[in-house]
Amino acid sequence: MGQTERILSVDSKNAISEALNQSISELVVTTMMAQNFHWNVTGMAFGPLHELFQKIYEDHFEAQDELAERIKAIGGHANGMLSKMVSESKVLESDGKISDKEMIKLLADAETTVASTLSGVAAIAEKSGDLLTQDLAITRGQVHEKFAWLLNSHIR
Ligand SMILES: [Fe+2]
């Protein structure tokens, strides 16, 4: 058992795991959205957008694993069911039949949502004295805010 798991009450462990699972659900939908747009984007900016969307889904795929394994490190259950992720996610799926600008806007909004959820994870972890989860959530939240800025800069 890790040191964090030893100091956490069952309620705290469950609350942190639930918050992390929520962030993973939104991250998974956002990952798929970025890959969807990587495939379907068109227009004069095809090259750079195709690449940027790939950079985003590759980053997010690794982050899903990092967040889920943090849940395991504190003794919680990592949800791995797609149907549950999609139904719980505040980020909604897109069919990808939209313009490049609409793609950028949707993905930027998704990044902002994930960042906000991770900020909430950090606050919950802090309340329980779980500084290591707090740090991970803050670090990841910053990455998602950066992607939101990168995306929004195309359409501002
Ligand atoms: Fe590809």
- Give me the CATH fold name: Ferritin
Multimeric organization:
single chain
Q: What overall form do the CA principal axes indicate?
A: elongated
Domain count: 1
SSE run: HHHHHH
Helix content: over 70%
Return residue spans where pLDDT drops below 50 for at least 5 consecutive residues. none
Instruction: State the fourth-level CATH superfamily.
Output: Ferritin, core subunit, four-helix bundle
State Rg. Answer: 16 Å
Q: What is the rounded distance between the termini?
A: 48 Å
- Could you tell me which ligands this complex binds, including any ions or cofactors? fe (ii) ion
- Helix-and-strand structural type: mainly alpha
Count, helices: 6
Relative strand content: under 5%
Mean pLDDT equals 97
Q: What is the number of E strands?
A: 0
Report what the structure shows:
- The chain is mostly helical and 156 residues long.
- It has a single domain (9-73, 100-152), classed as Ferritin.
- It is built from six helices and no strands.
- Helix 2 runs antiparallel to helix 3 and helix 5 (100-127) runs antiparallel to helix 6.
- The chain is elongated and about 55 Å long.
- Fe (ii) ion is lined by residues 38, 54.
In short:
This protein has 156 residues and is an all-alpha fold. Helix content is 78%, strand content 0%.
